[in-house]
UniProtKB/TrEMBL annotation:
The keyword Transmembrane helix applies. This is CAAX prenyl protease 2/Lysostaphin resistance protein A-like domain-containing protein. The chain crosses the membrane at residues 12-40, 60-80, 100-121, 141-168, 189-210, 230-250, 262-282. GO terms for biological process: CAAX-box protein maturation. It comes from Neolewinella aquimaris.
């Protein structure tokens, strides 16, 4: 941890919590008011968003919610703590280990079959009724977001599902939580997994907790290895964006809870992916020349 940012974690935590509280009140009020104004049945597991106007309004509301809850909250905490140095503190810098960019991207791609296997196994768990209802509510809104009839709908869906979450969630969970708060109280390796667990839990999507945990860990390693938040932002964007594009091209939205892949090929691919991903993590971690987080080299 560089001297410039040492000992700032408590102040950042307090300011970030303040930002979250302010944005939940302000942003939540705006989102609720807009939902009532548009007459959208948000929170109803049986809701349908049949018209293009309803779907665009839903996308806009979800975009604002993500922007306020994660992006603006994180920015407020960083700005109040680090002032003009907040982009550097967040990791929005040129990669300090550019040679590890291909490794970070490769580990993510190699880990995709493992994420697929984890998604399948997670779906085999029996969830309480209230969790099932929460999943149904999320699927109803996601179906509205990922139903398209025009190019403007596709573009706003990409902004809502790919661009804003990639920037805002990475800023909060990798830039603030992993990179600044957790790195002062635990090893960088453990911080990756704790931040990933928080990242997964905060989505309140129980049928996808394990795959999202693995996704968060791979994004966390991309940040840890390269020292730049731009790398996990780009990976997150392409991961979410590819799901939007594939849904647009297929013309049909299939919820993750209706995954029907054959088990044995999925198991074989997942086990190979597990071995390859674990090896890449082990080898890359062992080649790091210092235990200091790469982001603390503020010369970039």
């Amino acid at each position: 941890m560089s001297d410039r940012f040492r000992g700032t974690s408590l102040r950042l935590l307090l300011f970030t919590l303040l930002g979250v509280l302010v944005m939940l009140l302000l942003g939540g009020g705006i989102v609720t008011a807009l939902a009532l104004h548009y007459g959208l049945p948000i929170g109803d597991p049986s809701a349908t968003f049949a018209g293009p106007a309803d779907r665009q309004q839903l996308r806009f509301i979800l975009l604002l919610n993500n922007l306020a809850t994660f992006g603006l909250s994180a920015m407020l905490g960083l700005l109040l703590t680090y002032r003009q140095w907040w982009p550097v503190a967040a990791g929005l810098v040129y990669p300090t280990r550019p040679r590890l960019i291909p490794v970070a991207i490769g580990a993510f791609l190699v880990g995709l079959p493992l994420i697929g296997l984890a998604a399948y196994l997670n779906l085999q768990l029996d969830l309480p009724e209230w969790m099932v209802r929460s999943e149904d509510t999320g699927n109803a809104m996601l179906a509205g977001v990922l139903t398209f009839e025009s190019l403007p709908e596709l573009l706003l869906a990409l902004l809502t599902v790919a661009v804003v979450p990639a920037v805002c969630e990475e800023l909060m969970f990798r830039g603030v939580v992993q990179g600044r708060l957790l790195s002062e109280v635990m090893s960088g390796h453990l911080a990756v997994w704790v931040a990933a667990a928080i990242f997964s839990a905060i989505h309140v999507e129980f049928a996808g907790f394990i795959p999202r945990l693995l996704l968060g860990a791979l994004l966390g390693y991309a940040y840890r290895w390269t020292g730049s938040l731009w790398i996990p932002i780009l990976i997150h964007f392409f991961f979410n964006g590819s799901q939007v594009i594939s849904t647009y091209l297929s013309g049909e939205f299939t919820p993750d809870t209706e995954m029907d892949s054959a088990f044995w090929p999925l198991l074989a691919a997942g086990l190979v992916s597990l071995g390859a991903t674990a090896y890449l993590i082990w080898r890359t971690e062992s080649t790091l020349t210092s235990d200091l987080p790469a982001k603390d080299d503020i010369s970039g």
